[in-house]
Amino acid sequence: MQDYIMSVRAIENGAFVADVGTTSYLVVPPGHDPTPADAIAKTNWRQMVIKDAEWKNDTGEPRGDILFVVHGYNMGEAEVMQRHRRLRDDLVAEGYKGVVISFDWPSDDKALAYLPDRHRAKLTSLQLVTDGITYLSGVQTPDCCINVHTLGHSTGAYVIREAFDDADDTSLPNPCWNVSQVVFAAGDVSSSSMSADDSCSESIYRHGIRFTNYFSRHDQALDLSNVKRVGTAPRVGRIGLPSGAPQKAVDVDCTTYYAQLTAPDSAIMTTDSPNGFVGMQSHSWYFGNKMFTRDLFNTIIGKDRNVIPTREVTTDGHLLLKHIP
Length: 325
Fold this sequence. Notes:
- The structure is a single chain.
- The protein has helices at 42-53, 77-94, 114-137, 155-170, 202-207, 236-239, 255-261, 269-272, 281-284, 290-300; strands at residues 3-12, 15-28, 54-56, 62-70, 99-104, 146-153, 179-185, 208-215, 249-253, 311-313, 319-321.
- By secondary structure, the protein is of the alpha/beta class.
- α3 (114-137) packs across α4 (155-170).
- The chain starts with a strand and ends with a strand.
- The model has no long low-confidence stretch (mean pLDDT 92).
């Protein structure tokens, strides 16, 4: 199975580097890491993506799904590709029939590069909308509606938020573009900035039909004591959405589930995360975890947020991720 990547990394001496470049549309062969040699013409790439995204449901009705995955900071191309394939394979195992595209912005694979990475994330965010979301959604066929979704992990959440905001500020030719499901996991943006009337987030709520935020209070990367993030406000991926978030936005609290998953001699570790963890465990456990993937799959296909089987609904209406056999 070939992999689709949008890379906005610069190219030097025939290799991608951690600097801002123009958009490359890649089709990566199985088992390979992305290289500039994998780039094809964007019109050909678009045709391939649209064709692979289209499918029919159980009643024969046409549908299409494209999930843009936006990675966090301190990520080189090899790690981006590893997480891309792990998520794609797990979604397919759950029944996902669409396409997964990784938006590879120029983060550096250095632990102390948080601030330079965040700057490059901001510089390249608009390309996610102009060269990806609107470019693909603008060629929907009359007999098949392509549903575009976004998943931002860590700093990837910041990329998505800034992309939507910059797109509105830029006044794109088609201002009516929409994304079906906007999803954050371990989102590295301030919780307070995700209120409905915040100028930074108005656009993400305007263009997103539904917003889902997965958070965990065990996330050490988003801890305020983390030296790489001194002085930043509490993050939405650690404490959840603010009280002023719109009704279309919902939290899925993963705190209790993560504690059960990682407890000594956990009975669910081998079933829910059979391939272990990638990156910082408390921050990146979502990749390769079957309960998160199943919950994400049900979110993408549009199941009512209160009846997704991997969620417990508390008496006060909060949603908790839970293990199911």
